[in-house]
Specification:
Elements (H helix, E strand, L loop, with lengths): L5 E6 L3 E8 L13 E7 L1 H11 L4 E4 L1 E3 L2 H13 L7 E3 L6 E7 L5 E6 L13 H5 L1 E7 L3 H13 L4 E5 L6 H5 L4 E5 H8 L4 H10 L5 E4 L5 E4 L4 E4 L12 H14 L4 H15 L12 H10 L16
Parallel strand pairs: 1-4, 1-9, 2-7, 5-6, 9-10, 10-11, 11-12
Antiparallel strand pairs: 2-3, 7-8, 12-13, 13-14
Helix pairs in contact: 1-2, 1-8, 6-7, 8-9, 9-10
């Protein structure tokens, strides 16, 4: 087996998050006092890589930031944790991606408003073949699918598994998905991508594009996966969330960690659900990233909640 220089290469977005805690969202055109405010680093791939590092993996990050003060804030926790950020580009005149995250204090659920400077868009040449081939796993988001498809294609040719975090279908996503082994998508993505509104139909369409295992995350309800032969139902762990921001990113990180350990699909999903639950216990995308020992201790003490079928008719409020 080829010895790789690091475990996970992550290519995609980072963000400076303005986390605003509220007692419920105000009515349209209304006003509301914030109960808390914090400026915290985040972003899909940046957070996932930091979580991978906390779990003991060697990681490297490819992305773009602006030439503003926010760039230093976003990259600081990655550098401090040992994530290799030498391939990150600072774009002159651009502003680092930002998000305004509205967190409901009672439920921990969040609404995200984000802005990404167009100059931060990744180009195919930003991900050299040498970087891809030096990793044991490639992790991508759906931000620049037309540019990252080449990296995914290189990884698959080299026998390197490709993991994708996708929130919503968009231009170029099918070209990227054709080279993804493990698409892990949101419920909204699966329902829209299916064309029928069915989560399972969405998973089947992902399998039809070449996925080895297609996964949909269901928030507190856990995850559902299909591999073409069987279906894996994985219930979520019930916790009292403080902030659900970043839970999906941590799910991806724990899935990657479990995959590289050679675990089967059922155990990978269980690990990922547990890590996502732990991530909800602290504010911000990166506040609750578990270590390996913390994750294993949580799994030893907790059992997942009841399974809820995502395609079952939903009760009206």
């Amino acid at each position: 087996m080829t010895e790789r220089a690091f475990d996970v290469l992550g290519v995609g977005q980072n963000s400076l998050d303005h986390v605003c805690t509220l007692d419920g969202l105000p009515a349209f055109a209304g006003k509301a006092a914030m109960q808390g405010y914090a400026r915290l680093p985040g972003g899909q791939v940046a957070t996932a890589l930091l979580a991978c590092t906390r779990l003991g993996l060697r990681t490297r990050y490819v992305g773009r930031v602006g030439d503003d003060e926010a760039a230093a804030v976003v990259l600081a926790p990655l550098r401090a944790a040992g994530v290799d950020v030498d391939a990150v580009q600072r774009v002159p005149g651009a502003s680092t991606q930002l998000a305004v995250i509205l967190v409901d204090r009672a439920s921990g659920e969040r609404t995200v408003l984000w802005y990404r400077d167009p100059r931060l868009r990744l180009q195919p040449e930003d991900v050299p073949a040498g970087l891809v081939e030096a990793a044991r796993l490639l992790h991508l988001d759906g931000g620049d699918p037309e540019s990252t498809a080449r990296a995914a294609e290189r990884a698959r040719r080299a026998g390197i598994p490709v993991l994708l975090d996708a929130d919503a279908p968009g231009a170029g996503i099918e070209k990227l998905l054709a080279h993804v082994d493990f698409p892990i998508v949101s419920r909204g993505f699966a329902e829209t991508f299916s064309g029928t509104g069915s989560v399972r139909d969405g998973l089947d369409r992902l399998l039809g594009l070449g996925a080895r295992l297609a996964v949909v995350t269901l928030g507190a309800d856990g995850a559902l996966a299909r591999d073409g032969r069987s279906e894996i139902e994985s219930a979520g762990f019930r916790v009292t969330p403080r902030d659900t921001t970043g839970a999906g990113d941590v799910f991806h990180a724990a899935f990657a960690w479990a995959l590289l350990r050679g675990l089967d699909a059922e155990r990978m999903l269980r690990m990922a659900n547990a890590a996502a639950a732990l991530a909800c216990l602290a504010p911000g995308a990166q506040g609750g990233l578990p270590t390996r020992s913390e994750l294993e201790a949580f799994l030893a003490r907790h059992e997942p909640g009841p399974w809820r079928d995502p395609d079952a008719p939903r009760r009206k409020p």
